[in-house]
Design goal:
With about 90 residues, the chain is an all-alpha fold. The chain has five helices and no strands.
Length: about 90
Amino acid sequence: MCTSNSFSKVNELSEFDSDSELSSNELIKEAIEYNEESYEKICKSCYEKRKEDNNEITETEERLRKIKGLIKYFEIEVTEGELLMLI
């Protein structure tokens, strides 16, 4: 979780009153939109950590796929647990 002032955008939105330029529907829409772009703006360190984790998972899956290909080619009997220990 973020310990910084991550939610300043949300606080800014909550400061609008009924006379502001944003209608309540626009305010709700702005508050619920949650894609990668807004996620990065809210907490860049969390976004980068999640991106690194996804890259590590992809690399592990690729290594596992290659190992399984070799095992199949050489007709070696191995359990999933043994495969995970190789990685």
